[in-house]
């Protein structure tokens, strides 16, 4: 009988969450490097470069690769010959580890968990509780897989009850474009097939924890029906031309993972969950001898990419409507000057004030200015702000017309595409929408020279800040005519890929 202490579980969980906040899995870095080397779309190659540079910086600085440090998901396989000892439950032990990790003074992680999910939706302050899945298995150890899953990719999860004879690859390629780019491609698709609806979703999530090994399948060929399906879906998805950050390019997914389970003869449940460019997970085993020892990371294994951000320099403090209305989709810009921030909760409050005819909070003036959709990590040391990458812009679409019409806002900065409603408002008001690279939060934060909260401080990371930035890299995604790079880029690359010789893509 192996005796494992709850304290060792808590310590191991805390260590693992800190570790994965700044260390990408080596197999992911290798796959991203290969994608960077083969990419011929300049916007996509630039985005992948920023993600890889950001990853190396985060590993060296031990700061989060992404500002969204996720909701914690833990898969626990408990050996039947294990006795867990301590004064708390397994859930409580895991939650204590989460609490320690997310409030660590040297590397605080952004608390994103709220409760209850409806109504007040108050932040728990320490990212608890974790989502825990347990399984009893033969053996005398506890195996744990710890993941931190960001909201941008979680929100793109899909479930379908297909007919038994439906084509799975067709369903994926028909569904994926509707997910947009908010899941920050290139990443990994996890697919669960069979069981029941909830079993399929669980398998899809767990499949994402497996090693990235598509390069091996491509080299030797598929050896099982599941590998053949993985390869078919991988190739079909990449032929869509969506590319890094949805800008158009050769690589949309790095790998496709599949888990299957027996199902009812009349059913074919299929679930799909993407993992973003901030892929964070680790596996370890507890055997009763103490907390887990995590692998040493050799930062020299990261590629040496010296590419610097390029683009037209823009002074936000002297910007005129004529200036930003001259920008076209795909233009790279380096922003300097002052901008404001705001996410869902802040937008809701602002629009409520506008609709009621009340003034905006003191100091909040959007006239001729840009708003950055971001919820930053708290700073440490001499940082102006912690990792501060963009959040998914479509969540702000329903507020866009009110903000543009009622505040004098010049433009917006976020990640991924805008929906039809927002694009119509942008075109109507001759505004613009810019994107920063999702998954490059630490790199972006280095362009932020100062930060101060100016409204809604009680909202925490969702408060309105004023940032002063210097050479913050962005790309024009929707210009003042309503043209969208997320429409034109993938369309162009889908056509290019279709013209390649068979077997070349």
Strand order of the largest sheet: 14-15-16-17-19
Mean pLDDT: 95
Which band does the percent of strand residues land in?
15-25%
Biggest sheet record: 5 strands, mixed, barrel
Number of domains: 2
Q: Which value, in Å, is the CA radius of gyration?
A: 23 Å
Spans with pLDDT under 50 lasting ≥5 residues? none
Distance between the ends: 54 Å
If helices are DSSP runs of H or I spanning 4 or more residues, what is the number of helices? Answer: 15
Q: Could you estimate the helical fraction of the residues in percent?
A: 25-40%
Shape: globular
Structural class: alpha/beta
Could you give the count of β-strands? 19
Report on the architecture of this protein:
The protein has 505 residues and is α/β, with parallel strands linked by helices. The chain folds into 2 domains: 2-287, no CATH class; 312-490, Fe-S hydro-lyase, tartrate dehydratase beta-type, catalytic domain (fumarase, Alpha-Beta Barrel), CATH 3.20.130.10. The protein is built from 15 helices and 19 strands. It has a 5-stranded mixed beta barrel with strand order 14-15-16-17-19. Helix 11 crosses helix 12 (397-407). The protein is globular, with a radius of gyration of 23 Å. The mean pLDDT is 95.
What descriptors fit this protein?
505 residues; fumarase; 5-stranded mixed beta barrel; 4-stranded mixed sheet; 15 helices; 19 strands; 24% strand; globular
């Amino acid at each position: 009988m192996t005796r494992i202490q709850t304290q060792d579980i808590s310590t191991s969980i805390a260590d693992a969450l800190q570790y994965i906040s700044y260390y990408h899995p080596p197999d992911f870095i290798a796959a991203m490097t290969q994608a960077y080397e083969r990419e011929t779309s300049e916007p996509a190659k630039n985005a992948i470069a920023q993600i890889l540079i950001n990853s190396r910086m985060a590993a060296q600085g031990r700061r989060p690769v992404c500002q969204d440090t996720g909701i914690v998901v833990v898969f626990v396989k408990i050996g039947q010959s294990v006795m867990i000892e301590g004064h708390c439950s397994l859930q409580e032990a895991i939650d204590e580890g989460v609490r320690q990790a997310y409030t660590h003074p040297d590397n605080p992680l952004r608390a994103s968990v709220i409760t209850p999910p409806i109504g007040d939706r108050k932040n728990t302050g320490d990212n608890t509780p974790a989502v825990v899945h347990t399984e009893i298995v033969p053996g005398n150890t506890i195996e744990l897989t710890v993941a931190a899953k960001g909201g941008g990719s979680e929100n793109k999860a899909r479930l379908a009850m297909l007919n038994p004879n439906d084509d799975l690859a067709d369903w994926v390629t028909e569904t994926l474009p509707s997910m947009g780019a908010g899941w920050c491609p290139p990443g990994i698709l996890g697919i669960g097939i069979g069981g029941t609806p909830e079993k399929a979703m669980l398998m899809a999530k767990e499949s994402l924890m497996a090693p990235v090994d598509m390069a091996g399948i491509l080299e030797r060929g598929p050896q099982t029906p599941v590998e053949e399906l993985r390869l078919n879906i991988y190739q079909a998805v990449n032929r869509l031309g969506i590319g890094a950050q949805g800008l158009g390019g050769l690589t949309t997914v790095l790998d496709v993972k599949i888990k299957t389970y027996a199902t009812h003869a009349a059913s074919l449940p299929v679930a799909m969950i993407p993992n973003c460019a901030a892929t964070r997970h680790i596996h370890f085993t507890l055997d009763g001898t103490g907390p887990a020892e995590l692998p040493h990371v050799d930062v020299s294994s990261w590629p040496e990419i010296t590419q610097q951000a390029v683009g037209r320099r823009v002074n936000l403090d002297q910007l005129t409507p004529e200036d930003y209305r001259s920008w076209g989709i795909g233009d790279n810009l380096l922003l300097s000057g002052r901008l404001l921030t705001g996410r869902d909760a802040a937008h809701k409050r602002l629009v409520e004030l506008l609709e009621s005819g009340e003034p905006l909070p003191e100091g909040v003036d959007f006239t001729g200015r840009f708003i950055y959709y971001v919820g930053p990590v708290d700073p440490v040391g001499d940082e102006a702000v912690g990792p501060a990458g963009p959040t998914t812009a479509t969540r702000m679409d329903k507020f866009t017309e009110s903000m543009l019409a009622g505040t004098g806002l010049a433009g917006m900065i976020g990640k991924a595409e805008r929906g039809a409603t927002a694009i119509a408002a942008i075109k109507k008001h001759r505004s613009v929408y810019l994107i920063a690279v999702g998954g490059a939060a630490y790199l972006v934060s280095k362009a932020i020279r100062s930060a101060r909260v100016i409204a809604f401080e009680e909202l925490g990371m969702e408060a309105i800040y004023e940032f002063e930035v210097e050479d913050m890299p962005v790309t024009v995604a929707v210009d003042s005519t309503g043209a969208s790079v997320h429409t034109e880029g993938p369309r162009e690359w889908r056509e290019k890929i279709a013209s390649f010789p068979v077997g070349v893509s």
